[in-house]
């Protein structure tokens, strides 16, 4: 069976940095605000190549978001860069009151999301950011699956008038999309057809879900993979259609199973089309630092765990 996963891997930061530099050069209103993490998030490419568009705000995320709100009221389009953990928890009050409520045109890049943060430890990991941001009225929440989709999502956010949170990861992931791919807000993307069950995944977990589906295909289990880059707004029509088609849903995310994609999908299905659902994500526990593969296994979000979840949900049909 031919895999749809590319052998080539790129970090999301690669696509992010080149797109951010281009936007800052092409649009006089685009400015980058950095929470002193430019070398990690790769926002420093703007500091190095277009320094008049780069504002170093220091380790003061709350102040950075307040400044971004102020700039947005003048017609500037601020792009704020920090780790997802710091944006979603340290500065959430400023984001809600000063940006989301008035629907200001601020873009937020949450880097180093999820578990795999390069051994930085639990203080720098974010398993709650999707849950937090999707509760905010007026907020768009996006989690691209590879470097190319990061570029497309950023191009969309640049054209969109309102607050956007973009969740990106640190490490390299397989390329899922080509240059012809077009991101659509509120739309899911079918990466693999199947008839027995559907995996609905987002962000970094999508490539692992494809790997799991291909493994199951070799065992005679036909699994659809539905990538959900837009978590808010959510493609509820695609979720219901998948439930009607396969009658069994697995959700997969590198995030807590509480409040994230799994919760959003379950909320949709319980109201529109109740079918068996198994959620793959980090259960109600704190994380820790460790090697990538060990972390995926310990917190039960590896491709094998996704495949096992499919087998579990099939027993419930």
UniProtKB/TrEMBL annotation:
Limits of the Transketolase-like pyrimidine-binding domain: 10-175
CDD domains (UniProt xref): TPP_PYR_DXS_TK_like (cd07033)
Pfam families, per database record: Transket_pyr, Transketolase_C
Matches recorded under InterPro entries: PDH/Transketolase, THDP-binding, Transketo_C/PFOR_II, Transketolase-like_Pyr-bd, Transketolase_C
Superkingdom in the source lineage: Bacteria
The protein, known as: Transketolase family protein
Organism: Oceanobacillus aidingensis
């Amino acid at each position: 069976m031919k895999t749809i996963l590319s052998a080539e891997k790129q970090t999301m930061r690669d696509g992010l940095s080149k797109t951010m530099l281009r936007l800052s050069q092409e649009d006089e209103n685009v400015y980058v605000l950095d929470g002193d993490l430019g070398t990690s998030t790769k926002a420093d490419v703007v500091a190095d190549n277009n320094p008049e568009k780069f504002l170093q705000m220091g380790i003061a995320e709350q102040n950075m978001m307040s400044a971004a709100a102020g700039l947005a009221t003048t017609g500037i389009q601020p792009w704020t860069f920090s780790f997802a953990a710091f944006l979603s928890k340290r500065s959430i009050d400023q984001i809600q009151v000063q940006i989301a409520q008035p629907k200001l045109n601020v873009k937020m890049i949450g880097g180093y999301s999820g578990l795999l943060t390069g051994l930085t430890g639990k203080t720098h990991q974010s398993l709650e950011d999707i849950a937090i941001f999707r509760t905010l009225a007026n907020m768009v929440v996006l989690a691209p699956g590879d470097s190319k989709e990061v570029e497309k999502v950023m191009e969309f956010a640049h054209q969109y008038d309102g607050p956007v949170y973009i969740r990106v990861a640190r490490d390299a992931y397989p390329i899922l999309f080509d240059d012809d791919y077009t991101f659509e807000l509120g739309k899911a993307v079918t990466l693999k057809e199947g008839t027995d069950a559907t995996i609905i995944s987002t962000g970094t977990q999508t490539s692992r879900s494809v790997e799991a589906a291909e493994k199951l295909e070799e065992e005679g289990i036909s699994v659809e993979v539905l990538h959900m880059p837009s978590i808010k707004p959510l493609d509820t029509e695609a979720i219901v259609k998948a439930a009607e088609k396969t009658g069994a849903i697995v959700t997969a995310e590198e995030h807590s199973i509480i409040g994230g994609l799994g919760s959003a999908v379950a909320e949709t299905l319980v109201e529109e089309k109740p079918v068996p659902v198994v959620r793959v994500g980090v259960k109600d526990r704190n994380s820790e630092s460790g090697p990538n593969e060990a972390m995926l296994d310990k917190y039960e979000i590896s491709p094998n765990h996704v495949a096992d979840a499919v087998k579990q949900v099939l027993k419930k049909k």
